[in-house]
């Protein structure tokens, strides 16, 4: 191995980044080459010198200045029009939205293509089967909707075109079932909440429950259930995050 | 072979330097700190500041020079606290803070322009901080030579050799490949050796 081979490897050798075989070769060369050994010694002194440079203390008034700048930035932020704040908040996510948009467009395209490819089905009478939604009480135990209420598969031998009539009701029942399961989870973690969180949760759930009851059958009611489920999922996720990063007082 | 019988010089016998204490990657602590800062708890914010102030200020000091270091460090901390809500934890908190610091320092230099970039005139700016007597001469020369390097070399030397970060961490901070990071370090040290010349031969005591 020549000097030209060794010198590019000296930094890695001195930092212990070379594998043992190459390290041995470099070491062997250094034993016999004064010029390379001098460079290695200099680099070693340099590396140790850099490592031992003293830490630089930050000026004592820096924290106060930072706090002032943060306060000034918050004041400026509060004076910005809402649309500018929203724009600033969403701008970093634009690439993701763009990607989502492309995927959604592709999905719609495929759906349209599949729909137009398939044979038109004679619509069944639009009879909505009303399935009672379970009433959710935030603080009291609630009955989980029967599993059968959340079965989207039509029974074997059913004429699918006829069975479509009950589709909306079954979907609604599924949302209700999910809400009931989420409420069960919420009750399990309820004990870790503060009184304010509990009160806020109860109010929110009661409002969402009213919205469900007020909503008309079919899609409006499904939307109301989805709102309920989103709120419950958000709350439970927040709990998990809070539990994971609970601050010890 | 006589050469083999010779006592082995220090860099030959002990290529591995004592590992410098690394940035403590205490994820649990960081998570707690981040959560508290996001809630706007003043004590947590102050704790985060004190935990990172030396690293941030030290990096800024060595990359942009003493006169602008405070301005850059303040800018970095303001960015940290304002952007902490969006910190996704893809990297360690310390890596993220180092990245913000290096980017802010390099942007500051770019804004300041080449004419004001720390060069010969700037050496007085980057006065070596107080150090122990035994190695103050070498430390001063190293600080001065560091200030003469191109900003990119300064960044890699400070991150790897001064702060003691691994190549992987440096690559993550500088957003480059590990191989690039190693090659930059090699070139940066070669430039430093050229700049320091004989100062390194005697361990800086000349």
Description:
The complex is a heterodimer of chains A (249) and B (206). Chain A is an all-alpha fold. Chain A folds into three domains: 3-52, no CATH class; 63-118, no CATH class; 135-244, no CATH class. Helices cover 66% and strands 0% of the residues of chain A. In chain A, helix 9 packs parallel to helix 11 (219-244) and helix 10 (195-214) packs antiparallel against helix 11. The longest helix of chain A is centred in the last third of the chain and has 26 residues, at 219-244. Residues 126-131 and 140-148 of chain A have low confidence and may be disordered. Chain B has 206 residues and is mainly α. Chain B has two domains: 23-111, Rna Polymerase Sigma Factor, Chain: A (Orthogonal Bundle); 136-202, Arc Repressor Mutant, subunit A (Orthogonal Bundle), CATH 1.10.10. Chain B is built from ten helices and no strands. The longest helix of chain B has 23 residues, at 42-64. Chain B is globular, with a radius of gyration of 19 Å. Chain B starts with a helix and ends in a 10-residue tail after the last helix. In chain B, 40% of the residues are buried. Chains A and B meet through helix 2, helix 3, helix 4, helix 5 and helix 11 of A and helix 2, helix 3, helix 4, helix 5 and helix 7 of B.
Q: What's the gyration radius of chain A in Å? A: 33 Å
Shape, per Cα inertia axes of chain B: globular
The unreliable regions of chain A are 126-131, 140-148
The number of strands of chain B is 0
- What is the rounded distance between the termini of chain A? 61 Å
Number of domains of chain A: 3
Largest interface: A-B, 52 and 65 residues
Structural class of chain B: mainly alpha
Outline the fold blueprint:
The complex is a heterodimer of chains A (249) and B (206).
Chain A: H1 3-6, H2 10-14, H3 20-32, H4 34-51, H5 62-79, H6 82-90, H7 94-117, H8 160-163, H9 167-189, H10 195-214, H11 219-244
Helix pairs in contact in A: 3-4, 9-11, 10-11
Chain B: H1 2-5, H2 10-13, H3 27-38, H4 42-64, H5 66-83, H6 93-112, H7 136-148, H8 151-162, H9 167-174, H10 178-196
Helix pairs in contact in B: 3-4, 4-5, 4-6, 4-8, 5-6, 6-8, 6-9, 8-10, 9-10
